Prior knowledge:
The chain is mainly β. The chain is built from eight helices and 33 strands.
Amino acid sequence: xxxxxxxxxxxxxxxxxxxxxxxxxxxxxxxxxxxxxxxxxxxxxxxxxxxxxxxxxxxxxxxxxxxxxxxxxxxxxxxxxxxxxxxxxxxxxxxxxxxxxxxxxxxxxxxxxxxxxxxxxxxxxxxxxxxxxxxxxxxxxxxxxxxxxxxxxxxxxxxxxxxxxxxxxxxxxxxxxxxxxxxxxxxxxxxxxxxxxxxxxxxxxxxxxxxxxxxxxxxxxxxxxxxxxxxxxxxxxxxxxxxxxxxxxxxxxxxxxxxxxxxxxxxxxxxxxxxxxxxxxxxxxxxxxxxxxxxxxxxxxxxxxxxxxxxxxxxxxxxxxxxxxxxxxxxxxxxxxxxxxxxxxxxxxxxxxxxxxxxxxxxxxxxxxxxxxxxxxxxxxxxxxxxxxxxxxxxxxxxxxxxxxxxxxxxxxxxxxxxxxxxxxxxxxxxxxxxxxxxxxxxxxxxxxxxxxxxxxxxxxxxxxxxxxxxxxxxxxxxxxxxxxxxxxxxxxxxxxxxxxxxxxxxxxxxxxxxxxxxxxxxxxxxxxxxxxxxxxxxxxxxxxxxxxxxxxxxxxxxxxxxxxxxxxxxxxxxxxxxxxxxxxxxxxxxxxxxxxxxxxxxxxxxxxxxxxxxxxxxxxxxxxxxxxxxxxxxxxxxxxxxxxxxxxxxxxxxxxxxxxxxxxxxxxxxxxxxxxxxxxxxxxxxxxxxxxxxxxxxxxxxxxxxxxxxxxxxxxxxxxxxxxxxxxxxxxxxxxxxxxxxxxxxxxxxxxxxxxxxxxxxxxxxxxxxxxxxxxx
Length: 778
């Protein structure tokens, strides 16, 4: 079951020329946080087999996983973090470079010529590795789990880990007061309880600036980002529900989650406590560790490129089923597994309540991070722009939150505005804005129409209202669909329709991003999505009466669906606006661009050899040119870039053997999957967990060849040639003592050390049994 730390427990016009963003579009249910996707959350309910009420108690992370007041014997136990420790100097002595997984490189996810090749278009972007948990309530999740279901839609913060509801990231009620859990352990680790751990915790601009922003402020710390390094948190989960009968009393179904409402600890049955308005005995949590915090040194694509007000967090979570630590986020285009802190309601960065309830959005896969970090729509800021008011340019303060909110919709192809994404992982898009037809915050990369253009061929896809400029100076708001109607017309509509159109932004679509993900008539908003004229850029008309209407400041997206192959490749019809060559070919044969012409039964509506032959004749600067123009550049197919998560050390303490001199030997295997074939340090503690007083650790290296029965299995798990075995001769007098074995992560900043599988074992009082032959000695 998930191991929760403490009693408390996130969160994915015009454009800048030359920059495209390759985005991971997420699952079909694509939530803006990103969910916890493909491997999902394998859950089995959270009660007696799940997370106990207190999580990791004030005693810290004990050798059994969670101390006596936390998760009991069924909890994390042998897979726990134990009293761990890896000294603060980390693993410099091992000579591992700070960039981490050199062997995997960054090239495949790097910055290609067309711009930023990033991954993910969900809100949070916590994706493919998922989080293996064991659920929350006794009647909870059972065998269906999440693994087979994936993420089935998103209600912003709810259903992200369906059938578990994600409530946010909460600080643990225990802190590491001395020592460290990263790198090699040399001394004791001590813990201190934290009273009211979430009191005063909020998002703000910086350690010293209390205005809204992305820095996690914790009262009582000295006021630097480094204070958060090494801190323990929880990803808090509850069971989802539709009604009270699905919740174990006294919990009730509140906003889709089973909550035991409280205002003080006395409202809860001891030892449960009241945390963020709910008793902890109906909640579960997944342990998080903040390994690093830094200001972003990279630039965004807007005309205000500095990101020096964005704080980046490297966060690891502990997989409940195995105890292994893994990065919460995949590597981004810069090779970093970072996230930014985002309110659970990403559309409210201002209110105190929203700023106190936050999660993490991955920079490599979460739109809630990308819209701020990549495109520059920082929802805590405003910019002063010269905006055309119809007769002159007027200096106006433009809140970037308005464009951020529209970005959350447009980037995910959430055409129905119901948090359903109609895009795919790895889709190249050009997202941009125009405030008034003249001014942009984030300008277009442009459509490379002219011959010899090297930009990626795209076509116009979608646009959505971000801001009615007449509302500046008051309460900023977009144009809504309800404004299409007169008051009398609105009164004549059914109540449900009035509610719907009063919440929908005006939007228009020329074509969906993918043919097989077109919402069609599947969503309530379908009849109210305007249709855009493919021959008139950004002119969109009401589907009901073909009348144009203003969008004010809007965001738009260009994507590659109808420019998916070049002029020399057979395939589906191309858009005439892919480039000038395609336009010339389709003037001669419209069927190459999907136009049947005057015939009712066209011979074909494809781009094939005859279209390519026409290209050879007409795509030239002059009739006597020997060669046609170069073929257009196409986008990298969705899903072409791997998603890489850093992982902590893994391995197994297999047990004890005896050597010919009757010495007792502890043996097993360990590796860091991010460094295939690289030996890692293993620390062994006899008589108590690592970091405990009086139990100095011994460091050995997992570089021994494995016996044939183990070699292939371990090589498949770790990569390399199967030399990941370790052996350690126990000191005399070890009989009857507990022995602990820990693997050390090689990444910097890295995961906490991991208690290996079977990592706590007791030396038999009568001597070790016969050898298990895990290590090859012949």
